Amino acid sequence: MPITVEPLTEATYQDQQDLQKIYRDAPEWLFAPFAGDVQLIAGCLLEGSLIAGRFNDRLLGAARLQRHQDVWHLSQLCVRKITRRRGVAERLVHEAQKMASQSGATLRLLVPAGHLEAQALAAKLKVPLDVLPT
Asked: Which of 3, 27, 44, 131 is the most exposed place for a label (fewest CB within 10 A)?
């Protein structure tokens, strides 16, 4: 499944629909510090921090990528429920690592404390993890 990962600074109507589908099934803890999927999508597009995985002109997964001087944080990573377990999240993480490395930075996953699924993904992909306090 050839997934293209791209920064998403502008979203077409179809992209907006796809992003809503991606985050519709996400657990509530994933949206913090945003108040829900609509605010997360709008906020990330406004700050230019959204990256997305695209297949056949449709978005299948997305994440917030905050770029700092030496460390980039990847958070709010979510994949559409019907396309999970096909390597989309892994592709997003690997491309974010590549982008960070090319800018001389290190990528770290940023997750809330106590969420074992996100911690397991970080361990599986061998990506350093920063845990937000509860």
From this structure: 27
Supply 120's token pair: 């397991």
**SS percent in the chain: helix, strand, coil, step 5:** 40, 30, 30
* Domain spans, the chain: 4-132
Cα atoms found within 13 Å of the Cα of residue 92, Cβ hemisphere only: 31
Structure tokens belonging to residue 107: 């990528």
Predicted TM-score of the model (pTM): 0.89
Architecture of domain 4-132: 3-Layer(aba) Sandwich (3.40)
The structure tokens listed for 38 are 């609509």
